[in-house]
Amino acid sequence: MPFIIDEDEPDLSTLFQGVKVPESNMYISDSSQAVRLLSELIRNEKQPPVHRIKSMVAQLFALFSEISLDNELELYEQFLNLCARLTEIQKIRKLQNKAVVSFGGKFSAGKSRFINAISGIQDLLPVDQKPTTSVPTYIIKADHDTLSANSIYGYSTPLTTQSMGALTHEFYDTYGIGFSAFLDCIIAESSSFILPEGIALLDTPGYTKYDEKSLSKMTLSDRQRAFEQLRASDYLIWLVDIDNGGLNQDDLDFLASLHFQTKILVVFTKADLKPEHEIHEILNLARQTMVRTAIPCFGVTAYSSNQNQEYCGNLIPVFFQYVLQDSVRSNDLFTAFQKLEDQLRQNLVRAIDTTGHTARDLFGGITRSRQVMQIRSLVELWGRTQQKYTQLRKLLKRYDNLVTQINHEIASYIQSEDQHG
Asked: For residue 129, what are the β-bridge partners?
């Protein structure tokens, strides 16, 4: 539900009266600044729905009223899901044609430090977030350093390094408010980003271990949030604290539940804490573990963020080359629409081909028949079939014209800098 503040709600200016705050980040140490930051991020400026595109999609399916589609409901839902994603236009524009590599693992696996190190962005990402308060953060290459927060309603707010630094558990501990409830993501554009431009990194909240004896709503929410965000990415690097000594069953169950189609890279972090022979033993054990599963694995390696060094190989840059050469790009909505449209068109083309074959078979029966009554029946059937064939051909032309209009509308929507809905 939208975060709406009306006359019955308490005044934000009095929200933190009497709260003792530490002296650190100004948005944490100054309650009035905290109120201002919340006011900017919670703005209820919802993106208007993409009515025109949804209406044209409905017209597209109306063309198939007399044609049986095996997966019509599934295709229609996929179209509507893509339409819904168009409301995330600020994020879509920035991630268009980029491969999104997400980083998963348990809380405190060292994801943010690892990303800061391998991407060259130094200490841009906060590293002291709790699972329940952290916000997924995309990092991409750009000419200028900019930070922005995207609300769950599609609104984008510029961030400073100070306000970015406030998005930590310290704010939650001080004021009892987390940002993940109303922020969809943060997008960090960095000129220091050293990975290829075609790659976007996604820092996701860590998940806590599944424990049937203490199934708190907060724990389940953490796992679900991590699951949803990792599933939305194209590629995955799974991070494990090397002190764990290997991949445990909870890691394997979580990875298997993601049903990733692309290969996963497993990285053991904090490798500088172990002697090299022990690192080799842990990596070999993890490789054997992955072989026994059905999880697609690119490889297993170890890394130290403190030393900015990979141990026992050079697998991380090779993995990014694999990402660049592969073709999975879930944020290319224009291509996604075209693939769905092509599936619909194939259904129509099959119906035309089937009707055409039937008409030709009937005509052949007419020419071979010597019985007048049989000829009359065949001619009647052939006439109806030929009429349907002609109608389907005309329908295909209408379909292609409507698809051209939809693609033009989507391209204009994505590319227009002034479009808001």
From this structure: none
Per residue in 80-125, pLDDT tens? 888 877 777 778 778 888 999 999 888 777 888 899 899 988 766 6
Residue 80 C-alpha from the chain's centroid: 16
pLDDT of residue 220: 46
Q: Determine the Cα–Cα distance for residues 350 and 355; give it in Å rounded to an integer.
A: 9
Strands 235-241 and 99-104: parallel
Please identify which residue in the block is written with the tokens 């697998």: 315
Q: Distance between alpha carbon 256 and the CA centroid of its chain, in Å?
A: 18
Is 389:359 a contact under the CB 8 Å cutoff? yes
Q: Which of 244, 245, 172 is nearest to 205 (CA)?
A: 172
Q: What is the pLDDT of residues 226-261, one digit of tens each?
A: 777 788 789 999 999 999 888 989 889 999 999 888
Return the bridge partners of 146, or none.
189
Which value, to the nearest 10 degrees, does the dihedral of the CA atoms of residues 15, 19, 25, 26 take? 60
Residue 127 pLDDT: 56
- In terms of Cα–Cα distance, which of 156, 133, 154, 135 is closest to 146? 156
Rounded to 5 degrees, what are φ and ψ at 270? 60, 35
Q: What is the DSSP letter of 141?
A: E
Q: Are 317 and 350 in contact (CB under 8 A)?
A: no
Residues of the chain with pLDDT under 70: 1-24, 43-49, 123-134, 168-169, 207-223, 372, 416-421
pLDDT > 70 fraction of the chain, expressed in percent and rounded: 83
Note whether 77 and 37 are within 8 A (CB).
no
The Cα–Cα gap between 52 and 413 comes to 11
Instruction: Count Cβ atoms below 10 Å from residue 397 Cβ, excluding itself.
Output: 9
pTM: 0.71
- The stretches of 239-371 forming alpha helices (DSSP H) are 249-258, 276-291, 315-325, 333-368
Q: How far is Cα 304 from Cα 382, in angstroms, rounded to an integer?
A: 75
Half-sphere exposure of 283 (CA within 13 A, CB side): 23
